[in-house]
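INTERNAL AUDIT FORM
Audit reference: QA-55
Scope: verify that the stored structure record matches its stored sequence.
Auditor: D.O.
Record contents follow.
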Amino acid sequence: MEPLSGPLDSGGRPAEPTDDRPSNLAWAAGEASHPAPPLGEDCWFLSGPTASGKSSLAIRMARRLGAEIVSVDSMAVYRGLDIGTAKPTTEQQAAIPHHAIDVVDAAEAYSVARWLDEVSRILGDCRRRGRTILFVGGTPLYLRALRDGLAPLPPADPEVRTRLTTEARDHGPARLHERLIHVDPVAAARIHPRDAKRIVRALEVAEATGRPLSEAFAPQANPWFEPRLMVVDLPRTTLHRRINQRVERMFDEGLVEETRRVLTQPGGIGPTARQAAGYAEAIDLIEGVVDRAEAIRRTQQRTRQLAKRQLTWLRSFRRATWVTA
């Protein structure tokens, strides 16, 4: 299950909403330059909103293609976080080799740049074995980085970043967003007025280079990506019912116990991993902030919001093929 994007509060919980509109703003998070992995005619892509049935469909597709599966899920990389991230089951992973799953401990930060490096290595290994590659998952940032890579960026300027961050804290990010409208209206239209991190990064780069970030550092789309991308489509009522049922099942199957167990490990659950819907709520339940019913309700609500965000991004891939699961 993917995280809700956006800044976190002091407890590691999502704090402010981010914009639903898709963009090529992987650079805004401050990632380094990375080219897209070497995609080709041996690569296929399957995506869709959370709880749409991607994992089971992927097994059938992989068998027909003679493919191995590469996860495009920013939460599946975390070891020990299995129930809340809805990882492929043990049986599914035994049936078809899966990659980019259980890469790091839950306390670690994990970036899209690191994932791209991992994907390039996996592609080489699969090709040496003569295997087709099926990418499966719905993390929007990972999908776009898979298609475009990460645009080249100047290094961060600590002095400028500190000044802008302090201004955002003291006067609110909306004030900086107003400035960004004049400096880079394209970026401003794509970044939420309360998304301080990305506003600061866009202003920082514009100040350092004298050029709008959205124009100067636009990545180039990989031509193999969209024509081979299939997106699982479900009626909204069906999807919401499946989301609600999945969340209830997660709590029944031990999400709270899994969360408690990982919290006892060195470092516990880091800020990045806590973004996965369910873990912040489970922590609140463990700490007595909410009861079980409220934890489930909040997780269902966050997951429905996530599905809406994923679908918004996926619709931006205009040459994708939409299929009914």
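Auditor finding: record pair retrieved intact. The longest strand covers residues 43-47.
Action required: none
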